[in-house]
Amino acid sequence: MEAMAQAKIDLGQLARNIRLVRQNIPVQVKIMSVVKRDAYGHGLIEIAQIAQREGVDQLGVADVFEVERLRREGIKLPILVLGLSRREDIAPLVSFQASITIADLDFAAQLDREAEAQQRRAIVHVVVDTGLGRFGIFPKQTVPFFRELQRFSHLQIEGIFSHFAVSDSLAPDDRQYTAEQIEKLNRALAQLDKEGILPPLRHIGSSPCLLEYPETMSGYYNMVRIGATFYGYPEVPAEGTWAEEIRPIATVSTAIIALRELPKGSYISYGRTYQTDSVRKIAVLPLGFGSGFHRSLSNRGLVIVNGKEVPIVGRICLDHTMIDVTGIAAKVGDKVEVIGPRLPAHEQGERAGVGMNDILIPLCKQVERVYV
Q1: How far, rounded to the nearest angstrom, does the alpha carbon of residue 329 sit from its chain's CA centroid?
Q2: Angle, nearest 10°, between helix axes 142-149 and 172-195?
Q3: What is the largest CA-CA distance in the chain?
Q4: What range does the domain containing 321 cover?
Q5: Nearest residue to 195 via CA among 120, 269, 251, 144
Q6: CA 31/CA 206 separation, integer angstroms
Q7: Residue 224: beta bridge partners?
Q8: What's the CA gap between 33 and 56, in Å, rounded?
Q9: Helices (H), ranges, 118-171
């Protein structure tokens, strides 16, 4: 029995997106496929299996639980936990041979002791806060921190990285801020190099950098972290570039369950936020914010019915959404596309005033997924 709403995940398109990226970055640059939070809702294991088959170099995840799932399913790729981990996660992370983000010497000492107990080496990446203001050592602390790490004989210092705050923005002041973040990490890397303690992997680049910041894939930098682009969203304008060929891999669809005409002056849905200005044909979809359809799309978003874009009218309910199909040859049971290649999540986000991921991840994560 088919679900009320379904996300069709095109694994062939995922593979094509990965190949396109590989063909258009320097050959010496490694690729980390970011699969955190259930691969942006697309399915952790299924996406990781394709990434491994297509030759990506590493996976990036959110926490120990994703590491465990991947290892249990036979994923052999190196895995970096991009966030900070809890003390109680140390033993399993070392056991699973995950790469662990650190920004604290006490935590590093605990890692070292656990690695010694397991007769292993704990693999670590140091995170530097160049301007996101979330976590990490400050750039000026980089050399002293790395010097201290040298005393831990059971740590394998594999990498150093940072996160951008606004690399997906084309605003001049945001571009300047991103450039300053790059320069801060550049200076820290140069100091480590001078000291002879530069780690093997250095990364700051992400999906927007593929088109906007090529300097994050040259010089000291030898790995790039790709999430949204692999799922079909380069995050910056791609017109006129190789990334035009990147396509969304998820199509979320549902079907009309009710259809009727409402007279002029009728209010639709909770809050009376929409009133018909003439006789309108209104269809009901069995998809609401309880299934991840962002409520900010109320009276703003579009869906596709029989090849035609039609508006969402009224407030999106917990389980239902109303659409205006006036003038469309629509009937109960007709398929309705909510997001996909013809109606990308970033365009829906622009209509709703939210980010692409706010639209994409909840929908893909909460509706039934089918892989093709």
Answers
A1: 37
A2: 40
A3: 77
A4: 250-371
A5: 144
A6: 10
A7: 31, 205
A8: 7
A9: 142-149
Contacts of 60 (CB under 8 A, 6+ apart): 32, 33, 34, 35, 36, 79, 80, 82, 225, 227
pLDDT score for 92: 98
Query: What are the φ and ψ backbone dihedral angles of 227, each rounded to 5 degrees?
Result: -120, -80
Contact 266, 286 (CB under 8 A): no
In a domain, 240, yes or no: no
| CA angle, residues 277, 328, 249, in degrees to nearest 5 | 110
pLDDT for residue 1? 73
User: Within this chain, do residues 213 and 254 fall inside the same structural domain, yes or no?
Assistant: no
Distance CA 218, CA 241 (A): 19
DSSP 3-state assignment of 31?
A: strand
Looking at the fold, whether 195 and 270 belong to one and the same domain comes out as no
5 inside domain: no
Judge residue 177's burial from the number of C-beta atoms within 10 Å of its C-beta, 0-12 exposed, 13-18 middle, 19 or more buried. middle
d(CA 309, CA 321): 15
Catalytic residue list: 36, 270
Q: Are residues 124 and 229 in the same domain?
A: yes
Regions of the chain with pLDDT less than 70: none
Which has the closest alpha carbon to 32: 207, 189, 246?
A: 207
Strand-strand pairing, 201-205 and 321-324: unpaired
Residue that is written with structure tokens 């995922």 in the block: 14
Q: pLDDT by residue (tens digit) across 344-368?
A: 999 999 999 999 999 999 999 999 9
Inside any domain, residue 245? no
Strand, coil or helix: 61? strand
DSSP percent split of the chain into helix, strand, coil, nearest 5: 35, 25, 40
d(CA 233, CA 45): 20
Asked whether the CA dihedral 221, 225, 231, 237 is positive or negative, the reply is negative
The per-residue pLDDT for 229 is 97
- Cβ atoms 184, 144 nearer than 8 A: no
